[in-house]
């Protein structure tokens, strides 16, 4: 099976194909690339497989997974295509690497956070957890997608308190939505803009490590 994405993979130092590892699928923001996300996840390199995907569409000097009509308004056709491509890639990578199917995590910033939350709602129990950094859930996902039960989904949501692109109210709305849908939700805000701070990185790294340990299959 061919892969629908260009990607970087970071395997644990003592990687053993016979062992099943928790795995993070990392999705970058608009106009960025896969290398940007790998830099955020260095704290996981000992115990996790980390796979960072490059968006398949060009966006300035970088890439995107979908284009937008305006802030908060993705081009629906491209968004839907990315959702299917991402699910296909997760299945591809699970077959190629020693991925534990019971400990698959989605982590994304901005556009990547939008997709991480949306894809978790679509895939349901096939995803163990998500880390959503400064994103939102499109209205059409909530109203038109066939959303799966996510009561056992582990959710870490964070948002910048002075984000000039996605206001903090969007992070509050993400939290309110998932608090109703899941039994395992963490929400943190930071005195930052549209970015990932050192404290944010530290917090989600520890959260992922702890969740993976308590979720061994």
What does this entry look like structurally?
- By secondary structure, the protein is α/β, with parallel strands linked by helices.
- The protein has one domain: Alpha/Beta hydrolase fold, catalytic domain (Rossmann fold), CATH 3.40.50.
- 35% of the residues lie in helices and 26% in strands.
- The protein is built from six helices and eleven strands.
- It has helices at residues 34-38, 76-96, 111-123, 139-144, 168-181, 198-214, and strands at 7-10, 21-27, 49-53, 57-59, 62-64, 68-70, 73-74, 99-109, 129-133, 154-160, 184-190.
- It has a seven-stranded mixed beta sheet, with helices on both faces.
- Helix 2 (76-96) packs across helix 3 (111-123).
- The radius of gyration is 16 Å and the shape is globular.
Notable features of this structure?
alpha/beta; 217 residues; 6 helices; seven-stranded mixed sheet
**For the CA atoms, what is the radius of gyration?**
16 Å
The side-by-side strand order for the widest beta sheet comes to 1-3-2-8-9-10-11
Number of helices, counting only DSSP H or I runs of 4 residues or more: 6
At the fold tier of CATH, the topology name is: Rossmann fold
Topology as H/E string? Answer: EEHEEEEEHEHEHEHEH
Tally of structural domains: 1
What would you call the structural class?
alpha/beta
Identify the CATH architecture.
3-Layer(aba) Sandwich
| Overall spatial form | globular
> What kind of sheet is the major sheet?
7 strands, mixed
The CA-CA distance between the termini, in Å, is 26 Å
Oligomer: single chain
Number of strands: 11
What is the CATH class name?
Alpha Beta
Query: What is the arithmetic mean of pLDDT?
Result: 95
Q: Give the helix proportion (percent range).
A: 25-40%
Low-confidence stretches: none
- CATH homologous superfamily name? Alpha/Beta hydrolase fold, catalytic domain
Strand content: 25-35%
Protein name: Phospholipase
Domain Phospholipase/carboxylesterase/thioesterase: 22-197
Keywords: Hydrolase
InterPro entries: AB_hydrolase_fold (IPR029058), LYPA1-2/EST-like (IPR050565), PLipase/COase/thioEstase (IPR003140)
């Amino acid at each position: 099976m061919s892969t629908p994405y260009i990607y970087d993979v970071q395997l644990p130092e003592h990687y053993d194909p016979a062992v099943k590892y928790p795995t993070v699928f990392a999705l970058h923001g608009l106009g960025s690339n896969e290398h940007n996300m790998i830099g955020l996840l260095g704290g996981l390199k000992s115990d996790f497989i980390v796979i960072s995907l490059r968006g398949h569409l060009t966006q300035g000097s970088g890439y995107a997974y979908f284009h937008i009509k305006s802030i908060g308004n993705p081009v629906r056709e491209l968004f839907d295509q990315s959702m299917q491509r991402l699910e296909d890639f997760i299945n591809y990578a699970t077959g190629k690497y020693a991925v534990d199917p019971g400990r698959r995590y989605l982590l994304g910033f901005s556009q990547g956070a939008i997709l991480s939350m949306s894809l978790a709602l679509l895939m349901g129990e096939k995803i163990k957890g998500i880390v959503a950094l400064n994103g939102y859930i499109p209205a059409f996902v909530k109203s038109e997608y066939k959303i799966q039960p996510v009561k056992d989904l582990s959710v870490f949501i964070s948002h910048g308190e002075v984000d000039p692109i996605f206001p903090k109210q969007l992070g509050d709305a993400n939290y309110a939505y998932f608090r109703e849908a899941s039994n395992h939700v963490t929400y943190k805000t930071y005195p930052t803009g549209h970015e990932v701070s050192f404290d944010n990185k530290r917090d989600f790294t520890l959260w992922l490590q702890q969740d993976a340990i308590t979720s061994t299959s």
